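Sequence design from tokenized structure. All designs in this work follow the same two-part layout: the structure record, then the generated sequence. An example of the structure record is given first.
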């Protein structure tokens, strides 16, 4: 248990999908094209999705060229909810909001039917995982953005039938369409109606357009670039292309790219709006106002720059995320490390970052969320 004065809400934890998801939950017609482990042309581990190699960079970062990752042991809590609850208790975490691992890369699938089937299977499995503790394990729907109508149906089903509290999308273009494309308006309408946020979370794809991929072959350098740059591009799309103006009740959270980019990006967008407002007719107020009204960003454990983010952007915009059980996550000790980074932040802001903002974002009851103290 940590020395926090209250249990916290993990706004972005992950599950690790076991092979049974693809053998038991995927519709029979698609099982032959579901994810399976393989070796790439260099003999490195990867996954095959729909007949094409995927996750080569991701597996290289996880396992390394020697198929090992120093100091990393796969956590059972990624696929076993009872083990997850034990790990949450040891950290002092009341609630974990859950995102995929292999499912991060379904955006690489070019077949809309297969993408939809994989998302439905993942969501059904995740619902079963969360049933171990519905008040503490919170699902977010993985959506097949190649098919917007199917995405709307799946989000409605996941929220109304499975109890999920958000929609997950990648910031990259799906099928050549950027995240701010008007084709997605029905999905944003749906999220508004259901009262759930859209969570934007980057991965490191093999084939999906990714900022920086054209310049670097090294997986670590690609990872440095892809997460913040893709989130900044998506943020610009939501704000400067008028998505948030058209959808004033839509809530968006940008995850797993750190929070340090936010003050700079808000200031830069505001400056461009002031200077070239005539070229941004869909933006009727300073871009930072849209963000403060509708968006949040996650901080990583130990991200010392959070103090500057709170000072320049605001304490109501930041949530905390563990990234458990990924190999670059801190465990054990994520909350303790975060408390150290938050030492210079007022106590009231610490509670907002660790509990209240995430509860407001995902529509969680704060009293229920902290009942496990």
């Amino acid at each position: 248990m940590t020395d926090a004065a209250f249990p916290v809400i993990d706004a972005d934890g992950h599950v690790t999908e076991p092979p049974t998801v693809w053998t038991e939950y995927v519709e029979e017609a698609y099982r032959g094209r579901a994810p399976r482990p393989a070796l790439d042309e260099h003999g490195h581990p990867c996954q095959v999705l729909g007949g094409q190699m995927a996750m080569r960079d991701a597996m290289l970062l996880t396992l390394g060229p020697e198929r090992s990752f120093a100091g990393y042991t796969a956590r059972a809590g990624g696929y076993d909810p009872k083990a997850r609850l034990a790990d949450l208790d040891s950290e002092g975490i009341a609630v974990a909001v859950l995102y995929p691992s292999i499912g991060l890369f379904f955006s690489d699938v070019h077949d809309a039917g297969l993408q939809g089937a994989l998302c439905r299977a993942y969501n059904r499995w995740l619902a079963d995982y969360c049933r171990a503790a519905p008040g503490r394990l919170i699902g977010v729907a993985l959506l097949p953005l190649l098919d917007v109508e199917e995405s709307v149906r799946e989000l409605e089903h996941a929220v109304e039938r499975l109890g999920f509290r958000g929609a997950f999308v990648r910031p990259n273009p799906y099928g050549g369409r950027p995240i701010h494309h008007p084709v997605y308006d029905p999905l944003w309408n749906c999220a508004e109606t259901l009262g759930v946020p859209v969570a934007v979370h980057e991965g490191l794809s093999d084939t999906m357009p990714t900022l920086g991929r054209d310049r670097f072959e090294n997986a670590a350098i690609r990872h440095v670039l892809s997460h913040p740059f893709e989130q900044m591009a998506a943020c610009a799309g939501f704000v400067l292309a008028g998505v948030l103006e058209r959808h004033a009740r839509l809530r968006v959270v940008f995850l797993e790219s750190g929070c340090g980019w936010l003050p700079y990006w808000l200031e830069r967008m505001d400056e461009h709006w002031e200077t070239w407002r005539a070229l941004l007719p869909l933006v009727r107020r300073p871009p930072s106002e849209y963000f403060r009204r509708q968006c949040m960003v996650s901080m990583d454990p130990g991200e010392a720059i959070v103090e500057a983010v709170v000072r320049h952007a605001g304490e109501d915009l930041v949530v905390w995320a563990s990234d458990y059980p990924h190999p670059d996550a801190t465990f054990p000790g994520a909350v303790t490390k975060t408390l150290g980074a938050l030492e210079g932040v007022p106590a009231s802001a610490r509670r907002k970052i660790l509990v209240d903002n995430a509860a407001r974002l995902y529509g969680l009851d704060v009293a229920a969320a902290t009942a496990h103290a």
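The chain has one domain: 8-369. We note this feature because it recurs in several other targets discussed in the main text.
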